[in-house]
Amino acid sequence: MNDASEHVRTTPAATEGGLQVDMARLRQDVLDLGQIGRDAVLGLNRRAFSEGDRQGRDWFRQRLATAGLELFQDGAANLHGRLDYDGQRPAVVMGSHLDTVPGGGPLDGALGVLVGLEVLRRVKEAGIPLRYPLEVIDFSDEEGRFGGMFGSQALAGQLTPERIQSARDLEGVTLVDAMAAWGLDANEALTARRDPATIHAFLELHIEQGPVLDRRRIGVGIVEAITGLFKWEVRLKGQPNHAGTTPMDMRIDAFQGLAEFGGEVNRILEEHGGPNSRATIGRVELWPGAPNTIPGQATFSLEVRDTDERVLKALSDASRRTLSSIARRRDLMFEFDVLSEITPTRCDPGLLDLIASEAETMGLDYLRLPSGAAHDTQSMSAVARTGMIFVPSIEGRSHSSGEWTNWEDIEAGANLMLRSVLALAARH
Amino acid sequence: MNDASEHVRTTPAATEGGLQVDMARLRQDVLDLGQIGRDAVLGLNRRAFSEGDRQGRDWFRQRLATAGLELFQDGAANLHGRLDYDGQRPAVVMGSHLDTVPGGGPLDGALGVLVGLEVLRRVKEAGIPLRYPLEVIDFSDEEGRFGGMFGSQALAGQLTPERIQSARDLEGVTLVDAMAAWGLDANEALTARRDPATIHAFLELHIEQGPVLDRRRIGVGIVEAITGLFKWEVRLKGQPNHAGTTPMDMRIDAFQGLAEFGGEVNRILEEHGGPNSRATIGRVELWPGAPNTIPGQATFSLEVRDTDERVLKALSDASRRTLSSIARRRDLMFEFDVLSEITPTRCDPGLLDLIASEAETMGLDYLRLPSGAAHDTQSMSAVARTGMIFVPSIEGRSHSSGEWTNWEDIEAGANLMLRSVLALAARH
User: Is residue A295 less than 8 Å (CB to CB) from chain B?
Assistant: First the structure.
């Protein structure tokens, strides 16, 4: 984490007027939580259901208790902080996650939970009368030790007994065992399912994890959609041969097929994609993989994202056509497996307009943009109308100790969340 | 090995007239030796100084003894079979190697030694008077368990005490220990150096290990040169970033740089290379190597071969320029290490003409071509004028159990070697 003091500037005019978060308290929370789960080897490590996660949750429980907020832990081990919750009226819910990747940063997920906590505290302190109860949720295993978005998918009713039983981490530890070590029954996660009628709206604040806001020097992002994706493992098969004895015109070189496809990726995006399209070849394996052998097989990942399902379909079709054509022309065999497919998620236009309107009232510049990363909001969209606020990530850094956001941007984002929640939940 | 009987066709007209090899005997030698050093795991395995190699050498010693040929083992453990050798007159020397790669085939190296043996036997049996003695050499470790071409480099005086002491195989066994286990002192290899005045000419017969002769249905190759090469490890460094959150125009994607270079390889060969040029990218590693992370580094091998040193230099310059330009345009860092550089070797034009003239007399079609693979002839060129004969490799296969050559091509190649040796060594 950067030296926090470097990021303090004077409070911007944007927050003048109306209820505001207690920035000193929020800031201290960020700094305190950032010390929890530090690991000599991995840096900040609050992987789901690890010792770091346990300490982070304990700290959060204490913060809720100190603030006089109600605590509820559901069957998926999600921690809910509640204000005015009565089980009758639907709640305005905020949520994100306290778990991190190994070697993660202090803000990814944590900031959204802490801002939600601060919103509940300020509303309670100010004694604002509420039409709807408020809730802040720390979702379990967003980062994917056991598959990702476990807690929010539990709320959305997207879990199955099979998925719960089969989930295991890279070391082979099962979710069932990891939760049992905490005295929890993983199967109870099925009971965490939430009736959509109990949620008035769901809002998440998160760091962007990308460079767009930082590069454009815009403090607030309003997330219109979370990109869907398809992820393939592609195999081009040629003939492994001696690199010295096989003339160029007698080669069936699998790498050359991959290189040609690599050069076509941008054309495919230009012809069939839109401004939110992304395509990445991140993993390549050549076989046999020796400098003096013509590659007989190239195995590689192709991951393509977009916010529009039809665009994704067009990109998938174009990728397949291009790969087929390259393979045909080069006498290669082409095959692929679909490793995952995620449908894009749109946030609620009405909620986005509400957030935009509050940002305008605050005099904040904002940018409507897509989220290229997955978030709990994605699952929650199945049971609630959702809205999402981004704050800038300096140089787009995330999932690393260099992850940071200027305090003034945190403050502006937190106040925007507070105002948006009040607009939704306060008795006017 | 294929069923040998499949490859027998009628003896071609090409061998009529003059002394000929005893094809039945040569064929039996090939089949017998092909059974020696079989290994349950690795198939045919006569790696240098292994048990298989020992058995192959013992068998060869016996064949020399049976034929009444003189045996000499030099300090590099090369086995020499000799006819009429007197230490005074320079010898016409044939040579190749009995060692194999693990899982090798029955002909690579072995065929050249067996043809040499057969030539000495036939000349001895026929009582042909010789102006120059004849010699056939089984060179130690051509295939590279301890670096490659050890025996022929010893004869050529290219070894150093340091190289001998530091040579070790992939399992960490040193050459010194492997030879000591046979009661040999590896340092004695320095004494194997041969005075150039003792060699009248050096000839090697070898399988092509490439597809050219087989595709063109030509039975004999006359090797004009053995390609030199440069082998680089290239690193393109960009910025690893989240594949979802980083827009296409904010990426510094190391793989995209590699893909572009892959597409430029053929242009570089067309503009700066010749018909013997080859370029291969056989190994690629992306870092971090995750489907959802833009590659921050691409590390890959570039191996370029040609028979002309100036062409190699031009290809090296063009590769560097192209990589620099791609890196500059894409904001990547570019660096490379030279892993090896081998100067091309030209065979002796006079010897090649002599072989070609004998082939014409025999009515054989032949092709002058380069060798893309390394051979003992390469080292021997430092101390002798050299000539090399290729026989076709079916489908270019080599270093595998599928390596094979039609018997009629073996016979034609063996008779061409016999006639060429007689043209050089017989008292006319």
Answer: yes
Using a CB–CB cutoff of 8 Å, tell me whether B338 touches chain A: no
Mutate to test the interface with A, among B245, B293, B304, B331 (most CBs of A within 10 A): B245
Summarised one tens digit per residue, pLDDT across range A214-223 is 999 999 999 9
Interface confidence, given as ipTM, is: 0.87
Residues of B in contact with A282 (CB under 8 A): 243, 255, 286, 288-295
From B389, B386, B319, B379, select the one nearest B343 (Cα to Cα): B379
Interchain proximity A289–B281, CB inside 8 Å = no
Chains A and B form CB pairs within 8 A to the count of 199
Output the pTM of the full model.
0.88
Q: Do A227 and B244 touch (CB under 8 A)?
A: yes
Question: Which of A306, A330, A333, A332 shows the shortest CA–CA distance to A318?
Answer: A306
- Contact A212/B at CB under 8 A: yes
Confidence of residue B17 (pLDDT cuts 50, 70, 90): low
CATH of domain B228-342: 3.30.70.360
Cβ neighbours of residue A387 closer than 8 Å, sequence gap 6 or more: A201, A202, A203, A204, A222, A223, A347, A348, A351, A352, A354, A355, A420
Neighbouring CB atoms inside 10 A of A26's CB total 22
Which residues does chain B have within 8 Å of residue A265's beta carbon, measured at their own beta carbons?
A: 256
CA dihedral angle for residue A297, residue A298, residue A301, residue A307, rounded to 10 degrees: -110
- B134: pLDDT confidence band, cut at 50, 70 and 90? very high
> What are the chain A neighbours of B236 within 8 Å (beta carbons)?
none
- Alpha helix ranges (H) inside B231-308: 254-272
CA distance A99 to chain B (A): 19
The partner residue sitting opposite B396, judged by closest CB among A245, A266, A373, is A245
Smallest Cα distance from A383 to chain B, Å: 24
Tell me what pLDDT residue A274 has: 95
**Within a 10 A sphere around the Cβ of B426, how many other Cβ atoms?**
17
The pLDDT tens digits of the residues spanning B40-95 come to 887 899 999 999 999 999 999 999 999 999 999 999 999 999 999 999 999 999 99
Q: Decide which of 3.40.50.880, 3.40.630.10, 3.30.420.10, 3.20.20.70 is the CATH code for A7-227+344-425.
A: 3.40.630.10
Q: How far is B383 from chain A (nearest CA, A)?
A: 24
Q: Is B348 on the interface with A (CB under 8 A)?
A: no
Angle of helix B309-330 versus helix B254-272 axis, rounded to 10? 150
**Contacting residues of B for A208, CB less than 8 Å apart:** 245
Domain boundaries, chain B: 7-227+344-425, 228-342
CA B232 to chain centre: 21
Q: How far apart are CA B153 and CA A188, in angstroms?
A: 73
The C-alpha angle B138, B191, B386, rounded to 5 degrees, equals: 50
- Residue B24: name the closest of B105, B109, B118, B117 by CA: B118
